[in-house]
Write a structure and sequence with these properties.
There is one protein chain. With 427 residues, this protein is of the alpha+beta class. The chain has three domains: 13-239, no CATH class; 242-252 and 330-426, Arc Repressor Mutant, subunit A (Orthogonal Bundle); 258-325, no CATH class. 50% of the residues lie in helices and 14% in strands. It has helices at 18-29, 33-44, 51-58, 62-74, 89-99, 110-117, 122-128, 138-147, 150-159, 165-176, 184-191, 195-207, 230-242, 260-274, 284-295, 310-317, 320-325, 332-337, 349-354, 384-400, 419-426; strands spanning 48-50, 78-81, 84-87, 182-183, 212-217, 222-227, 252-253, 277-278, 299-302, 305-308, 347-348, 368-371, 374-377, 404-409, 412-417. Strands 7-14-15-11 form a four-stranded antiparallel sheet. A three-stranded antiparallel sheet has the order 1-3-2. Strand 12 and strand 13 (374-377) form a beta hairpin. Helix 2 (33-44) packs across helix 5 and helix 14 (260-274) packs across helix 15 (284-295). The longest helix has 17 residues, at 384-400. The radius of gyration is 31 Å and the shape is elongated.
Length: 427
């Protein structure tokens, strides 16, 4: 396997007022559900609000409301002047960007990332991410260079180097977690971090395009959670959900040899060399071999008989591996799909098909797309005809090429990648 180059961004939190950002995050994380609801009302109202009317509308106990308003006054969100609340326009704008994180349908994905980047001057972003100074659309550049396809982003995560030694450990723990999420409390306890230190690390993860912070409601308020960006997390959940489970029971193999079809084809060709054979057979497997000999131009048909060509002798002299590789394996997307089950042992064909997302025919390559304001790695949908092609490629073409062995378990067709298939695909 080739050694991939490491990548290192130049993200420096000192390039912007990150301490103020951390202060704001700490403030919001400590709010109760009731306080978030009141803050939403204030953010949606005018810049000057009648206090008695507001108290009546929110049905909040006077003492509770007064305590919270004093808290908001302390962070300069508003000023209390007699019976009026004077909202600070800039602080309201900041609060609005944080309040969306507490929406039920909030997903910390590409739109969230776009908001994060808006806090950083463009010239600083170009330095952080090694982009041209005259880049027209920095966000789109990052999408194209970092997130565009699952393969590109997976390589980015694997190759990224961090300045802070804890970041690599946190990312490793994140991807080892069952739900791809880490509790802030557990991270702080494990690494003996203060809240400020924790949020500084999260900012580094966010601006290094690796993971982000979100809030999950609990009985008392909110749990802070680290997760990958939503689009990547959704795709990873799909991979986990559709990963074929290895069969543990005894499998009835179609043939014991890994190169069963090539061996059978070679034996049939040797017979044709000795004596012409009928070009049609009532046995489907034999007919498939006859058709394959014609396809490979090893025989020719004359008067309903197959006659060996000179190329037949040369083909038989090849190693069994080279003979296998001479078989057609198109479309190659199915072959690439075997990477998901290289070392899974025997799996059901139907399970493999349920998790297949390769490019077939006119299908577009799986990539990050924006539909409205909904981003995602939208999976391809296949027609019945296309599904039949995928199945046939797996169970016929790849079997013929010696890449997979076929069998049956509990009445269902199954397969496993052969040693030859693994060796070829891992090169």
């Amino acid at each position: 396997m080739p050694v991939l180059p490491h990548r290192k961004n130049k993200v420096s939190l000192s390039d912007f007022n990150y301490l103020k950002e951390i202060e704001t995050r700490l403030f919001f994380a400590r709010l109760s559900a009731k306080e978030i609801a009141i803050l939403r009302e204030l953010a949606d109202d005018s810049l000057k609000i009648d206090l008695p009317e507001f108290a009546k509308r929110t049905k909040t106990a006077p003492k509770t409301l007064q305590t919270f308003l004093k808290k908001l006054e302390g962070v300069k969100f508003l000023k209390i002047e007699g019976d009026s609340l004077i909202i600070d326009k800039e602080q309201r704008k900041i609060s609005e960007s944080f309040l969306v994180k507490f929406d039920e349908d909030f997903e910390p994905g590409m739109e969230y990332l776009k908001g994060l980047l808006s806090k950083i001057p463009p010239i600083i972003q170009t330095q952080w991410y090694h982009l041209p100074r005259n880049a027209d659309n920095i966000f789109q550049n990052l999408i194209d260079n970092t997130f565009l396809t699952p393969k590109i982003y997976a390589q980015y995560i694997d190759q990224l180097e961090y300045d802070h030694p804890l970041l690599k450990t946190i990312v490793k723990d994140l991807y080892a977690s069952p739900d791809l999420s880490l509790s802030a409390i557990k991270v702080m306890q494990k690494h003996k971090l203060t809240e400020e230190q924790f949020h500084e690390l999260v900012l580094l993860l966010e601006y290094n395009l690796v993971a982000c912070l979100s809030y999950q409601p609990n009985e008392e308020g909110w749990d802070e959670m680290i997760t990958p960006f939503a689009e990547w997390r959704t795709f990873q959940h799909f991979l986990k959900k559709t990963a074929p489970k290895p069969i543990t029971g005894k499998v009835k193999k179609f043939r014991e040899e890994d190169f069963a079809f090539v061996l059978d084809l070679s034996q049939l060709l040797e017979k044709v060399i000795k004596a012409p054979a009928a070009s049609k057979s009532a046995d489907p497997y034999t007919q498939e071999m006859l058709d394959r000999l014609l396809f490979l131009h090893l025989v020719k048909e004359e008067g309903g008989k197959l006659i060996a060509k000179e190329s037949a002798h040369n083909w038989l002299k090849k190693s069994i591996g080279d003979r296998a590789l001479s078989m057609s394996r198109h479309p190659t997307a199915v072959e690439k799909g075997l990477h998901r089950v290289l070392r899974s042992g025997w799996v059901y064909v139907d399970d493999f098909l349920n998790g297949f997302f390769g490019v077939l025919g006119s299908k577009e390559k799986l990539s990050l797309k924006n539909r409205g304001k909904k981003w995602g790695y939208f999976l391809p949908e296949y027609t019945d005809e296309e599904k039949a092609v995928i199945r046939k490629t797996l169970t016929e073409r790849l079997f013929e090429a010696g890449f997979v062995a076929l069998g049956e378990h509990q009445g269902k067709q199954c397969f496993c990648v052969t040693n030859f298939g693994r060796k070829f695909l891992e090169e």
